[in-house]
Amino acid sequence: MMYFDERKDLCEVTQMMFDRFNTNAAGGNISVRVSDEHFIMTPTLMSQAKFCRLNPEDILVIDKDANILEGNGKVTREVNMHLAAFETMPDAGAVVHAHPKESMVFASLGLPLPNLCEATQKLGEVKTLDFAPATSPELAYIVRSYLETRVGDMPVATLLHQHGIVVIDKTLRKAYDMLERIEYNAYVNIHAKVFEALGICKVNNNNHYSYNLDE
């Protein structure tokens, strides 16, 4: 089996993402660059049909043209967005697309996600991109156009209007780690706004710390 260890690790991260409500049965997908020519990627319907319980043989090995070299199932229709990210970001090692529970509030409303937490300081505010239908060439184009303004940055994250989130980092574990950090930051933001509305305290996102900006 090609890239067995990498495919096994992707299975573990995919299940973790689903079990911790960082995506839902409506979808989500993950891809990893494993060589100059090859990527591994979760198959279509991984959430709806399998609840993200995947085996290494379910993980697809694809080339730069999205041709399947090995693995069960079909390529997700979001593959164009993933390949656009890898083509645009030379340092990208993994692309995580998900529908996280708290961050979806900001994505659905078309709002940027402010940074309130120490652990997401290096990202700053997470922008919500303009709307395009899920799986469409237009969505891949919008994501690519945004990433072209961020070449050299890592990690990179952006919300997709009414859809979800994309997180890009050098490794799969780093990308998933950042997804969880963003989700906690979204949770804090929502509750901070409730506190502000109740007059308990005013939200202040003037950060006064310098935390772990390299990792």
TrEMBL record:
GO terms for cellular component: cytosol. InterPro entries: Aldolase_class_II_sugar_metab, Aldolase_II/adducin_N, Aldolase_II/adducin_N_sf. Keywords: Lyase, Metal-binding. Residues 8-190 form the Class II aldolase/adducin N-terminal domain. GO terms for biological process: pentose catabolic process. One of its GO terms (molecular function) is metal ion binding. It comes from the Bacteria. Gene3D superfamilies: Class II aldolase/adducin N-terminal domain (3.40.225.10). Pfam families: Aldolase_II. SUPFAM superfamilies: AraD/HMP-PK domain-like. NCBIfam families: PRK06357.1 (NF004979). This is Class II aldolase/adducin N-terminal domain-containing protein. It comes from Anaerobacillus alkalidiazotrophicus.
